[in-house]
Design a protein that fits this description.
Elements (H helix, E strand, L loop, with lengths): L2 E9 L4 H20 L3 E9 L11 E2 H9 L2 H17 L11 E2 L3 H10 L5 H16 L8 H10 L4 H9 L17 E4 L3 E4 L4 H18 L1
Parallel strand pairs: 1-2
Antiparallel strand pairs: 1-5, 3-4, 5-6
Helix pairs in contact: 1-8, 6-7
Protein name: DsbA family oxidoreductase
GO molecular function, one term: oxidoreductase activity
Organism: Acinetobacter tianfuensis
């Protein structure tokens, strides 16, 4: 008999730890498939806008981090920490190539509404596409034309994507983690883990969720 684990992942596109956490979750799910082949995992991505007051056009990336961390040395140390963590999960991030810190409301709105237009695999492809556009290709993910191109490349219907991106009164409501930050993983609304946890921790949380399900039967 098939079992299902629901995982809610709270994230923002500008957060490199969210991309790292996504890779760790993928490893954990693959491990679960090997040990529990009859268990399916259903992931729901909950968009969190970390910088809701960010101008729509964004601001220069280097200036943003210099203002936030205070010194160029602090910025280099923080970015090197992230680079090493990303490299450990097979992700290359070159902060020097990112020109602007964008407003992510439109990207989150697109991902949320696109969930109704395709299956989970295609929806994940769109999520990956937006992450990649920002961290790997230095693109402006607050730009409508950029988001439209990413979505159509991922196989979405161009007219449907245009309708989402150009809707006049569609606002994005940021999800709330209760101050836990992102990434934030919630398993079956029972267990929660904050931060880019190792795959082993995420795998263990899924096992504990299964134990709770079995205890209720």
């Amino acid at each position: 008999m098939k079992s299902m684990i629901d995982i809610e992942v709270y994230f923002d596109f500008i957060c490199p730890w969210c991309l790292i956490g996504k890779r760790q979750l993928q490893v954990a799910i693959q491990q679960l498939k090997q040990t529990h082949p009859n268990v399916e995992v259903n992931i729901k991505w909950r968009g969190v806008q970390l910088l809701p007051s960010m101008p729509i056009e964004g601001i220069p990336f280097k200036a943003f981090y210099l203002q936030r961390l205070g010194t160029s040395m602090a910025v280099r140390l923080r970015q090197e920490q992230v680079r090493q963590a990303a490299k450990a999960v097979g992700v290359e991030i070159d902060f020097e190539r990112i020109p602007r810190m964008p407003n992510t409301a439109k990207a989150h709105s697109l991902l949320s509404h696109a969930a109704e237009l395709a299956d989970a695999a295609q929806h994940d492809l769109l999520l990956e596409g937006i992450f990649s556009a920002y961290f790997h290709h230095s693109e402006n993910i607050s730009d409508t034309a950029t988001l439209e191109r990413i979505a159509t490349y991922c196989g979405y219907n161009e007219a449907q994507i245009k309708a989402i991106l150009n809707a006049p009164n569609v606002s994005f409501v940021s999800a709330n983690t209760g101050g836990k930050g992102v990434p934030y993983f919630v398993f079956d609304r029972t267990f929660a883990l904050a931060g880019a946890q190792p795959a082993a921790m995420l795998y263990q949380a899924m096992l504990e969720s299964l134990e709770v399900q079995e205890a209720k039967v």
